[in-house]
């Protein structure tokens, strides 16, 4: 029934992924969507087009915190080409949504709580008409004082960002403006501190980073004849969206059919809902297909950011360099709505020690509600901020002890068997000391690379580059190291599973497999790997990747480095079940011809059923003939536990990932300009299912860490809580000129608990990259530098 | 207003174009050529880079009317343009006018399956397109069309670029996924292959 009402727009991803990839596990197979992407034919969510479609536009609040006195849509409604103008009064059902807490309004009602919050909605026949109509909507605000930091949030008479909380954390938090608080107490930090010969303390500030994916939030909602809606959208998790969208539309989930449209990057920024509900409401209201595409300005308001943080750390060590204790307090600013703040708090606290052995710790992490932009998931998810601080502390400690900073880290490095501050035993390889050794052992890039024979300086190789600000005078070099630990997959008892539907059939005389999952391909290369797994497990050459949609069970989120592990694991598992079925059919048909059908271990290889001795018994095509085997199964990793709310104890994480960096920088000390010369990474990936993708992920993650070290920050005015730089003119991400060579050295120490031994890859390099660059700049300048990003004024003393 | 121009070697006319519409909007929404991407629409990211009379421009910053009577090459026409580079340049992707995508065809644009995505078998790709695939320079791919147009133009001007040349030429194109290393690899690879091809001829 559902399928019959479906109306496919132009550019439907249905066509996109029917491509064939060659190569199995461990090979650098090329992307199945590569050709489409280089020819401009790949259908991204903003490329969808439908006959007779309208354009949706959001009106966003111009103030951060205010009561809404009135909204007047009269003038907008009378404009030619305008089909609908909606406010919260027009919402069909639930007014709020949210991943962990349902605290986010679809359209603001009563109050706005942050700058850029959606207030009203327009559908028109041209995007410019829609924009102009939105500008004609008159909203009267009565402004309220803004809460922008810990002091204003926790003041005794503080205004509450959410007056009537009833979420699962509201009962235990010490203040209603705290989303979640996670302490971890292990051993006795005060007693252990007495054994310390040196103690270092530090306060660190981590700026608000943006995912800045290039493909804007966008999609197409098509109203269906059965009263439902077909939604084509770029997201990280179709089923999580579906759970949030359906109640807001007042529709059962089966009437909201979602298909993944091409995704132009994500990095956590598409975990939360953006335009999904709004476009659907407009489509249902107007009876026409509605396309929505955020422009870049809007995109900065349209997704959550990385939590800015204040981190207070104390470490002690004996004079031979052994860490005695650690105390820390981490304050994460969650902004106006919860998003995944509570989980980020859990991560920040449980990973706050870093990849080190410290038996006595006293940890507290809190996430705040403020009137700043909402923050949630971004690559590294709470571990990034902590890594920035604990790695700065390691350098401080090394300096005070007169030790080599890498040696100090290696001396205290965790390894397999180490007990985490949560009490969890690290039960798979943890090659922290080895990763550091590898980046340190790498030959250094040559000094003064800007010097050219006889022609003076090539300014392009200097800080400031083509701006020709220096010819090498005042340029100093520094080298810095860092290492980090990141959890993989969803933690704290979350029922983290993935589903894969695998089909095998004979087409044109050849056995062909189809892999159908709801996994979001956001650029990471999952589609490549899924075919590699199916090809390896089923021994077929031809594998088709079915488009991701909600016609199959959930794959969970493309985040937390979990998809190769989880959906890869689900595919492996379902393939194994399919293989059993194929062999069953074979035994039934051919079992009487050859005793090996009953006696031998049978494999599927090269399109054939073969014995473990290598003897071919039959081709898969002959076994199957007209039969089709199809299996859809959920697959789970081993369970985790919630952290105790008082002690923080619990086996909360599934797996850990480790990466180390060495940064080499040159700093123009006169102008405060930094040039990163090289940013070498060593990482344990468990098993490189696709080495080409592995290296690409590590280099990409490293570059995002470099960005936050030297340029990236969403700047929020502390007096008004308004965002000052929502554009690519003012929010800077690294260009090819800002990015150095990134040599990658990866280890493959299998995790015995993971499919093929894989370890999540995408996140860990984002952790250590930032502190390594900061350490290098400190080494070059001798400055303390406790804040990201490092701006020129921090280097020249003109702050 | 009506705008007459040539896109990927094929004369086109667009009707009812509003004066404020960008060339990018006309290409994407009226011509059905969504290959040029809409990432920032303010000339900062380079995702919408096309060639206008041979010169790489951010098509989001070009008013559609400015394209009147001129030649536009988008990523969709890149392979064709590269094939006809010698006789077509400057100012035309296809000397005969028989190449590129016709308007009717363009309006019916669909994301098509590739016959063999690995090798591009059965699909003519320009050397730079093939090199991006081979070097693993494509991840989410949203920056790819703009980078390809910019890189192809640089290789036309400078067939043996140094790394510094490549970095300079591509500094107007943001990529958020790759860390640029593999993009550099791809451009080096395309240059090397072109050089070898040149020697062979």
Automatic annotation (TrEMBL), chain A:
The keyword Oxidoreductase applies. GO terms for molecular function: xanthine dehydrogenase activity. It comes from the Bacteria. Gene3D superfamilies: Aldehyde oxidase/xanthine dehydrogenase, a/b hammerhead, Aldehyde oxidase/xanthine dehydrogenase, molybdopterin binding domain. Residues 39-145 form the Aldehyde oxidase/xanthine dehydrogenase a/b hammerhead domain. Its EC number is 1.17.1.4. Pfam families: Ald_Xan_dh_C, MoCoBD_1, MoCoBD_2. PANTHER family: XANTHINE DEHYDROGENASE, XANTHINE DEHYDROGENASE SUBUNIT D-RELATED. This is Xanthine dehydrogenase subunit D. The lineage of its organism: Bacteria, Bacillati, Actinomycetota, Actinomycetes, Kitasatosporales. The gene is pucD.
TrEMBL record, chain B:
InterPro entries: 2Fe-2S-bd (IPR002888), 2Fe-2S-bd_dom_sf (IPR036884), 2Fe-2S_ferredoxin-like_sf (IPR036010), 2Fe-2S_ferredoxin-type (IPR001041), 2Fe2S_fd_BS (IPR006058), Beta-grasp_dom_sf (IPR012675), Diverse_Oxidoreductases (IPR051452). Residues 1-78 form the 2Fe-2S ferredoxin-type domain. CDD domains: fer2. Pfam families: Fer2, Fer2_2. Keywords: 2Fe-2S, Iron, Iron-sulfur, Metal-binding, Oxidoreductase. This is (2Fe-2S)-binding protein.
